[in-house]
Design a protein that fits this description.
By secondary structure, the chain is mainly α. 72% of the residues lie in helices and 0% in strands. It has helices spanning 6-17, 21-43, 46-63, 70-90, 92-95, 109-116, 120-124, 128-139, 144-151, 155-173. It is globular.
């Protein structure tokens, strides 16, 4: 899918800031799947990922960011998603809450993500720091340098996380996929 150029983003954000519901729906549709997928890979809970998705868009509306280009927009949404996910994980409410098991609705983003890839379930079994690195590298297409900048880590640390995550995935998936 083609991403918007800077001028298109500026016009869209101006319309969103002016209260244009159609423009907001367009922006939401453009980035919701990526935000939800990243939040879910971080939190491993669909309800929490949906909460983060809503919070990210509230912050977008409040701050009305000026993005330099489509990549800056994507990075902004991922950085805010990371921040919101971390806040949720460390919140006092979450520490005292007992998660409920939920079954995703047939047309939900979670169901769509699970159907798109065979290894998604294995990725979700990884420790959080490995899930983050794998998601940003393989699902979002960021380089090691970009991941290090977004997560406040170093490039060698990200490389190490990717290496260890691949090893864990290799062990988890051993024998599950047979070449035909």
């Amino acid at each position: 899918r083609k991403r918007m150029n800077k001028q298109g983003l500026d016009v869209l954000m101006k319309k969103v800031a002016d209260g244009d519901n159609e423009a907001f729906a367009r922006l939401y549709d453009e980035v919701k799947k990526g935000v939800f997928a990243f939040a879910y890979s971080y939190l491993r809970c669909a309800a929490d990922a949906e909460d983060v998705l809503q919070e990210v868009f509230v912050r977008c509306l409040r701050s009305n960011p000026a993005w330099a280009d489509a990549e800056h927009q994507k990075a902004w949404f991922i950085r805010v998603t990371i921040n919101c996910s971390k806040s949720l994980v460390t919140s006092a409410w979450r520490r005292h809450a007992t998660p409920l098991e939920t079954v995703p609705e047939p047309d939900s983003l979670l169901t769509e993500m699970q159907e798109e890839t065979d290894v998604y379930g294995a990725v979700l079994q990884l420790p959080q720091k490995y899930r983050t690195a794998i998601h940003l590298y393989y699902y979002e297409g960021y380089s090691v340098r970009e991941i290090a900048q977004m997560t406040g880590s170093t490039e060698p640390a990200v490389k190490s996380q990717l290496f260890r995550a691949r090893e864990l995935l290799r062990e988890q998936l051993k024998g599950e996929f047979i070449d035909v």
